[in-house]
């Protein structure tokens, strides 16, 4: 799993705000933090529309199973946010902050 600076900043931010959290993986769907996965090179940005639609359905089901009727605080990118589109009680705090540099600054200032 990718664990670069941006991922670590998002992870640290969400861990301070949420009791339970998960990661959206383009290959594995919704991954819990303790789940061990094999390395992969894949992004939803490079997958087919059919794959993304199937992925969205898998992730929605897993979110419903893992986070039933809970408020969702989502730091994911545009393609990944599709899994939560139309769902009530969802917040996308980074959605309107352009660029990774600005998002990192926001994450740092909103600890």
Compute the number of helices. 4
Counting structural domains, the number is 1
Outline, from the CA principal axes? Answer: globular
How far is the N terminus from the C terminus? Answer: 24 Å
User: What topology, given as strand order, has the largest sheet?
Assistant: 1-2
Q: What portion of residues belong to β-strands?
A: 5-15%
Average of pLDDT:
92
SSE pattern: HEEHEHEH
Helical proportion? Answer: 40-55%
The overall strand count is: 4
Taking all Cα atoms into account, the compactness measure Rg is 14 Å
Low-confidence stretches: none
Determine the structural class based on helices, strands and strand pairing.
mainly alpha
Largest sheet: 2 strands, antiparallel
Would you mind describing this structure in some detail?
The protein has 111 residues and is mainly α. It has one domain. 41% of the residues lie in helices and 9% in strands. It contains 4 helices and 4 strands, in the order αββαβαβα. The chain has helices at residues 5-17, 49-66, 78-81, 100-109, and strands spanning 23-25, 29-31, 72-73, 90-91. The strands form 2 sheets. A two-stranded antiparallel ribbon has the order 1-2. Strands 3-4 form a two-stranded parallel sheet. β1 and β2 form a beta hairpin. α1 packs parallel to α4 (100-109). It starts with a helix and ends with a helix. The mean pLDDT is 92.
Give the topology.
Elements: H1 5-17, E1 23-25, E2 29-31, H2 49-66, E3 72-73, H3 78-81, E4 90-91, H4 100-109
Parallel strand pairs: 3-4
Antiparallel strand pairs: 1-2
Helix pairs in contact: 1-4
